Amino acid sequence: MADNAREEDAIRAVVERLKSAFGATHSPAEVEEVVSKAHATFAGRPVREFVPVLVERRARIILSESAG
């Protein structure tokens, strides 16, 4: 249970970093949606330690590509 809370805290931090990094081109809601979708792709995976890093990477790519 503590690991899940730690992962959720890390994902919230990812959202905040990406809102800051992409605030000029994407709304906060768009950033949250991209992170949520990226996070969902790792649901059910047994190894969780690197999920926040992988989510941030995937979300950054998506947001960069759609920045115009």
UniProtKB/TrEMBL annotation:
Full protein name: Three-helix bundle dimerization domain-containing protein
Recorded superkingdom: Bacteria
